[in-house]
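Contributing new complexes? Match this layout with pyridoxal-5'-phosphate.
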Amino acid sequence: MSTSSDQVATLSGPTAAELRPAAELAPRFPLTANASPAAADAHAQVMDHLTFGVAFTDHMARASWTPAEGWHAHRVGAFAPLTLSPAAAVLHYGQEIFEGLKAYRHDDGSVWTFRPGFNAARLNASARRLALPELPEEDFVASLAALVGADERWVPEAAGSSLYLRPFMIATEPFLGVRSAHAIEYLVIASPVGPYFVHGFQPVAIWVAQDYHRVGRGGMGAAKTGGNYAASLLPQQEAYAKGFEQVCFLDAATGTHLEELGGMNVFVIDADGTVRTPSLTGTILEGGTRASILQLLRDGGRTVREETIALTELLEQIRSGEVVEAFACGTAAVITPIGRLAGEDFDVTVADGAPGQVTTELYTTLTDIQYGRREDPHDWMYRLV
Ligand SMILES: *Cc1c(COP(=O)(O)O)cnc(C)c1O
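Output block (do not edit by hand):
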């Protein structure tokens, strides 16, 4: 059983104050400007109709790696299709990792990102698990600074919007033998995105998967890798068909306790104000949003527990009113209130299905920090432009 004694080390990268300024880092990825960037009307069409992950900016950042050369050819160039051998290892064995973070426009026009040092550290933790080369943390931040510097006009201004940044690393060596590849590419692409909640908070209905698991002990659960997402697609599709928006996965070893959603961590709040989230046992991806929420709650003097959350106990606590709120969290949606939890033999409504007070407060505090409307006592915000 997972108990708090199984707690794995949490990620810690440099804070924004510990990183060199963007103006110093960005030149590490020299820019060759896109010769045919999107025309003004095409740009306006995208920026006036923001969705998630559909439209991309004019540029992408990139670096290459081989065992002999290490990381080299750091650059920013035109966003363009990749040229890849059909034998590229990533296409066959899934040697791939990614990250997700956002660039936020503040009221004074400046552009900032949230805890890039955390994401840099997480990329490298994922890299180690997938036998990929680590990227120096400052080069990771440099790639974001260079790309957002080149694509500043794609950082939206509308309330709640942002430029979503997607760094990723892939094995490009054309080789069908099974070993870690000898040619790797690191890239960053960017997509202007609208607020996730156009009509404010909308509590979602969650299906608890009992027949499928996304990861197992010793697997890749603590790494941010496409393979884990591939494992979540079929359960996700089946849940959609039943009328649910998201799937919550249970631990594969016992099938008794909550781990996380396909791409979001999960929290529950007790009637006495205690906040609980599943502990990091190696099968859960440590979210930057999760880590930040824990910090904000501790700052506020709240009781916070990272522990095993048993499904049967939780259902009982929701029914009896001992658990009064639940939410999922991640960079894309920030915080998603959970209004309903159902599985093969249960179906419960959390509180009255409306977003709770603590959930709403956390959402406001976190987004206020990200958009520069509130003090940032932990040096989370890093200025890109
Ligand atoms: C990315 C991700 C999260 C959320 O991480 P954030 O850093 O908060 O965006 C949670 N679970 C999984 C499986 C993820 O891939």
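Reviewers usually confirm one structural detail per submission. For this one: The chain has two domains: 16-194, 199-376.
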